[in-house]
Each structure stands twice: as structure tokens, then as C-alpha cells.
Amino acid sequence: MDGIVTVLKPPGMTSSNVVFDVRKIFSEKRAGHLGTLDPAAAGVLPVCLGRATRLFDILVDKDKEYVFEIALGTQTDTQDAYGTVLARDERIVERSELERILPDFIGDQIQAASIYSALKVDGKKMYDLARAGETIEPRLREISVHELELIEQTAPNRFLLRAVCSRGTYIRSLCESIAERLGTVGYVPILLRTRSGPFVSEQALTISELDTAKSVGMLPETLISCEDAMAFLPELRLPADRTTPTKNGLETHVRGEADGLVRTYGDDVFLGVGEVKNERFRLNIHLY
CB-side exposure of 234: number of CA atoms within 13 Å? Predict the structure, then answer.
């Protein structure tokens, strides 16, 4: 079972528990997800299985897309609906006010991650430390928001938005910053990840659906192959006499090829992912 399964994580379930269930369903020890979703969040959680775990560093760095609701006028300690209310503000924010300031949050920026995030401090998740009452220093990180748009207003002081952003972006922290810019407070009652790199919600399956697929012998059909997962990379087809040397770790001269990662084939067989540097190619990730 080598490939990636796109799981639809429900709210209230940890990403680690998703991996545990997937590992059990597929009877595969080698498994890992491509970017934590907070327990309160739902949506796309790709899980790599078998040899596909070798693709982690490539796939985990891809952009993410979220659809989420921001509720203005209330602040919670966890920045979501599960936390304790810390403050309230009676002011009503108009749709036009929100639309006016959203472009200010597009681009590269420094963000402070929520202390109720899954980031680890000394091997322990920050949200476990926060719930235990321990004092935690905010973690700053560089992020980039590529797209940020208002979809619709769902109620007074409640708005549905969509964001496309870099790895490591915390939507709850982004919403808190938006509320501050509007001179009020806010939290995120609904957070849904609709895309993680090339993996989208339309192809996502629940744990229950995976169990059903296993019971009817259709489990392999739920996997996205390593080759298909790398479809976004340019293709490189090697001469027949370079297939064996490539498998043995030797370089090949590839005149005219641009530098970068490539999806590699030899004898019309998918070999894995390699890299071209200065017209010299080497296979880095063996997947044949």
C-alpha cells in the first residue's frame, strides 16, 4: 500500500488519531499526515503510506486553502468556539468595513501562533501545555497569505471567508488580527481546510468510508499513487541506457533541462523524484 489517502477529518478528532486509524485500516506501519489540523478544525488531511512517506518534505510545504467563519464581538482564550469567553464588544461591524481591510492581510507577514496550536515545546504540544495552565511564550513565524476574500455575511458580525496561504499559517491567529484591525475582538467558530497542496476536499474520504472500502475489497482504489501525487512536477524521461545507472545513484547529463525537481521515468517506468542542477541529474527519492 504505497500512496496517499485524502482523509476528511471531522471536528473533535486529532490528526494523530486519524493517522492511527488509517494505519490500522491499511495494515501499514509507515504512515504520516501532511500538516496538522487542530482538533476543532475539519477538512482535508492527506496521509502518506508506505513509500509515499518519502515524499513528505515535498508535499508538506505546499499551500493550503481554508474556508472559515469569523465571529466578531466575542473573544475566547482558544480563538475558537471551544474556549472560555474572555471579552465581549457590542459594536457591529459592517460588511464594507471588513472588505476594506482584508487586502491589508495579503502578502508576507510575521504571525504569532496560538498557544492552543499543535506546535511542540520540548516535545509537548502547545495546546496540552496551555490547558495544563503552563506559561508559554508565543511562537513567531513567517507566513504568506496569497488570497483572502469574503464569501458572504452569515449573520450580524459573522462572516464567511476563504484564504489561500502558506504552510504554517494559523487561521485563528489571522482572524484575531483582523478583529484587532477593526477595533474589536473575534474568534473562529468554523474552520474547514478545503485543500492541502494538490489534495482537495472533493477526493477526501471519512474513516468510515475507508472502513467500508476495506470490507468490500476496494481499499487500493482509495489511494492516490506516488506518481499521480507528483503530477505537478515537470517530467523527465531518461535514455534507456541510463535507467540502471540512475537506480544505482549515478548522475546523468541532461542538456537543456532547467534546474529543479522532476518526475522521473526510465524505460517508461516511474522511478521517483530527482533533481536537476547545472544540467546534471540525480534520482533523490526512489519510488520504483
Answer: 8
